[in-house]
Amino acid sequence: MADECCSLQLIDGDGGFNKSGLAEFVKAVRLAECGLSYAVVSIMGPQSSGKSTLLNNLFRTNFREMDAFKGRSQTTKGIWMAKCNEIDPCTIVMDLEGTDGRERGEDDTAFEKQSALFALAVSDIVLINMWCHDIGREQAANKPLLKTVFQVMMRLFSPRKTTLLFVIRDKTRTPLENLEPVLREDIQKIWDSVPKPQLHTETPLSEFFNVDVVALSSYEEKEEQFKEQVASLRQRFFHSIAPGGLAGDRRGVVAASAFALSAEEIWKVIKENKDLDLPAHKVMVATVRCEEIANEKFVCLSADEEWQQLAEAVENGIVPGFGKKLSSILEKCLSGYDMEVIYFDEGVRNAKRQQLESKLLQLVHPAYQSMLGHLRSKTLDDFKEALDKALESGEGFAVAACDHTELFMSKFDEGCEDAVVEQAKWDPTKIRDKLQRDIDAHVASVRAAKLSELSAQFEGQLSKALAEPVEALLDAASDDTWPAIRRLLQKETKSAISGFASALAAFELDQVTVEKMLAKLEEYAKNVVESKSREEAGRALIRMKDRFSTLFSRDSDSMPRLWTGKEDIRAITKTARAASLKLMSVMAAIRLDDDKDNIEKTLSLALADNPNPNATNRSIQSFDPLASSSWEEVSPKKTLITPVQCKSLWRQFKAETEYTVTQAIAAQEANKRNNNWLPPPWAILAIVILGFNEFMTLLRNPFYFAIIFVAFLVGKALWIQLDIPGEFRNGALPGILALSTKFLPTVMNLLKKLADEGQRPAAPEPHRNPELAAKSFRNGVHNSTTSDASSNITSSENESEQSSPLRQYKP
Ligand SMILES: Nc1nc2c(ncn2[C@@H]2O[C@H](COP(=O)(O)OP(=O)(O)OP(=O)(O)O)[C@@H](O)[C@H]2O)c(=O)[nH]1
Known about the structure:
By secondary structure, this protein is mostly helical. The chain is 60% helix and 6% strand. It contains 27 helices and seven strands. The protein has a seven-stranded mixed beta sheet, with helices on both faces. α4 packs across α5 (176-193), α12 packs antiparallel against α13 (397-418) and α13 (397-418) packs antiparallel against α14. The longest helix has 47 residues, at 346-392. The protein is rod-shaped, with a radius of gyration of 68 Å. The structure holds guanosine-5'-triphosphate (GTP). Residues 47-53, 65-66, 68, 74-76, 98, 169-170, 218-220 line the site of guanosine-5'-triphosphate.
């Protein structure tokens, strides 16, 4: 074969099928593009009967012909194939190995049978090449062949209406009109002699075949005529598949794209000697081809650039018009499939289309899911942002949440509409439900946060409104303390609850929840008071001592007391202790319910200074009302200081205030002592009587009097300057020593002052003025020149103040 591309040995002499050669051939002649517009022609006949010569002349092919000078021998082995040149439609021709060749002998009958069957199964037109002189002959070379053809046709095939074109070679002078009836008679005889299945006993030959006859002159002897006749015959192959054409009646044509597969499968079945059911074969071919095409289309779409870009884009975010884009990509792929499979069995191609469609949808489904995922998360984010803004702008929570939920769910639905893929019936309900759940959860969490914010705000307001006033009220503990606290609690709670209730209205909560929250706030207010009371009870000892100190050390005008000796320290102490006891009784329990209790009575009975002298010795008391850890009629929850703690607290209080009282008594004694410097009255009387003469002398002599007066002044000045009473306060010896060291500098200083003052106009000396000295004392200025007893009291008070660390008491 000169042209490898356009002709090939399809089946070799041993029955091997040239699959790759056929694939290349199909590609080279672009057979697959022909759809159903192609025809297949085969030639059968005795060996060396000029078949190849005829085909080459008829179709301008280049099948190998026998060299006429070498004698008759087998040239064509197996089956050869070539494309007919310049014939429309595309026509493929097959040259079969001759049937009665000497080389193969009887054993080759099987191959002859198989190749005949193959030619009949594949071809639309079968040329039966025969010698003219064989017509009407009993032992004609092609009789067995025809018999075989008819047998296998009957047994294996459904009618295909193959055209059997008998080509009579080396025609004689006998006209064809006379030969043809004889030939048809021969054919009919063979047809009749073939055993038929029940179904086809009455079926005429014409049902299976179109029989046509043509006669050609001898190629060797009348070449010119031969060529003319062949040229005329060639014309019949143009438009052979059109109605009325040579193969116009053909049935069950396989699409050109499946020709290779079909031929291979038919040959396989024939070789295996299995039943060759053409309709089933057609379905099989259609199945295989449709599947191949579907796979090709699937691979094609997987690698499609547009699809890959879309898939990549949807990975990163929302793609507007996703549904339309994806639908068009899928549509392109499916319509490509439809175009290619149009000539295959409808049932098969539809089934394979469905498979392809579902495979494609499976491929693109993750992209759709991803699209909906982005849509869901974006909608949720947008919803959160919009809700926050709406709440910031003061919109009511419930209304804002409801409106925004509706708005964003409908936005999501719009997005889903945009993502709808025409070919798929994907349901976005699951993702929609998830979005709804997410939105609901967000609304719930924002609601909880806002409510807790609101609660915290009102709780903060309540704490502020209650804590400090309660502290102040407890600090000024009196009979009205707890009623005042109750009034305060009621007022503040009422105002907070009304504010809270109106704020809660925006949340449209159910009545039960609202009531619960209001009750919680009310409870909180109570807790604030209770915890503040507990805190204050922890400082009861300090408060008691403060109160004691205030009442004890200051008079009714809040002025510091001067323990001059006239004060009734016992009465003052008693009053101060009673006030402290009162404070303790107020702080002993929480009294928010207006329940009466006898704490104060019990405490005053047990702890107050008993005026009855018979009861002063408490150690012999038979019953101690404070020997208990709870108060009567007061629940432990409301107890701030238990009776036992009260007792211990009182003991500590008394111990810590004892010193102040002692100091006050000592100060009073010292003051009394200091103010009592005059000699006894009898001594004064003796001085007056005995010193009368001296006194008179002095009065009579003013000079003496002046000297005495100056001496008095100097003495008084030295007395004050040297602070003689002060120096002797610590004993006589330290006083003498101190005075001895101070005496000379003081005298010098005094003289200097006198000299200075002698040069200046006279001015009053503030420190000599007792009123001014007292004033400077009250202002806390310690003046060393004053030496009265009040300094002792002040210092004792200071000591009491400095002992504050001892006052920390925790019951
Ligand atoms: N008498 C006669 N001989 C012919 C005719 N055509 C071809 N031949 C000769 O027959 C011989 C065989 O020709 P091929 O064309 O090779 O025959 P074939 O049938 O293809 O042979 P195989 O392929 O071997 O079966 C050649 O020598 C041809 O010259 C014809 O019309 N009449």
